[in-house]
Amino acid sequence: MSTTVVKRRGGRRRAALTGRAPADTPASIWNYLFLALVFVFSAFPLYWMLVIATSTDAALAKLPPQVVPGDQLLTNLREVFSLQDVYFIQSLANSAIVSSVVTLSVLFFCSLAGFAFAKLRFRGRNVLMVIVILTLTVPNQLGVVALYIVMGEIGWNGTLLAVIVPGLVSAFGVFYMRQFILEAVPDELVEAARIDGATTMRIYASVVLPAVRPALAVLGLLTFVGTWNDFQWPLITLNGTDYPTSMVAISDLASGNYVLYRRVLAGALVATIPLLIMLFIGGRQIVRGIMEGAVKS
């Protein structure tokens, strides 16, 4: 019997004993190939955006199309930042302010509300939680007109407050934090802290927050990305002002009778960089938070 056959039988025997397939099985190879294809299809729009953002108008008209990045990125970015009617630099700063404030507020209020719904006993708790869940079924578009009227009565339309205040708390964040706290924080730990004389806010700060850091990272990243990419409501309340967000500024770049796509995608490339940085920093926390929230110990 050859050495190769012995190795194969040994690998199968070990796989049968451990319950795991060998690392070089055809199934694992096909899984990697499938993941590689998914990655290519997912990353191709970003690569194509880079190609267009670094090209000239003549390169865009080529057939077959150009698939290699050009050398005109700085020129295109200079045009984007120099436009007087777009305020692109200001829009990036506004998006950073809005996304940061909304993210910090959502993390605080949603974790606090999730702690209350998960571990505190008060009258009407279940009814309020059902109402919070039901709000998730209502499309945001249905409340745009009413929200615009309310912001107009307050005098906030055309300001960043009109974008920040409606997003300070999210129903999804409250529900997500409640479910995570139910599994991550034992009732015995809360009762022990209460016996030691800790107040509710002290329990929240010293017991709950350290246990839900992965969930906070996931919620914070999702909130930041969602707020940064929000387009409809900022377009309605900030359009035509000197305080747009990055998505509204990109839509202004794409407006007009003749659209320069190299300029539009150069602005989109700059607006995408903060999101890629956030995903690179918090990617591991996302996986950890999702796994800890989905798998019971």
TrEMBL record:
From what superkingdom does this record's organism come?
Answer: Bacteria
Transmembrane spans: 29-50, 92-115, 127-150, 156-176, 203-225, 260-281
Biological process (GO) annotations held by this record are: transmembrane transport
Q: Which positions are tagged coiled coil?
A: none
Do you know which SUPFAM superfamilies this protein is assigned to?
MetI-like (SSF161098)
Q: Does the keyword Zinc apply?
A: no
Q: Where does the UniProt annotation locate this protein?
A: Cell membrane
| InterPro entries, sorted | MetI-like, MetI-like_sf
Give the GO cellular component terms, alphabetically.
plasma membrane
Question: Which UniProt keywords are present, listed alphabetically?
Answer: Cell membrane, Membrane, Transmembrane, Transmembrane helix, Transport
Name all ABC transmembrane type-1 domain ranges. 92-282
Keyword Mitochondrion recorded:
no
Known Pfam families for this protein? BPD_transp_1
> What is the membrane topology listed in the Swiss-Prot or TrEMBL record?
Multi-pass membrane protein
State the family named in the UniProt similarity comment for this chain. Answer: Belongs to the binding-protein-dependent transport system permease family.
Protein name according to UniProt: Cellobiose transport system permease protein
Q: Which organism is it from?
A: Micromonospora pisi
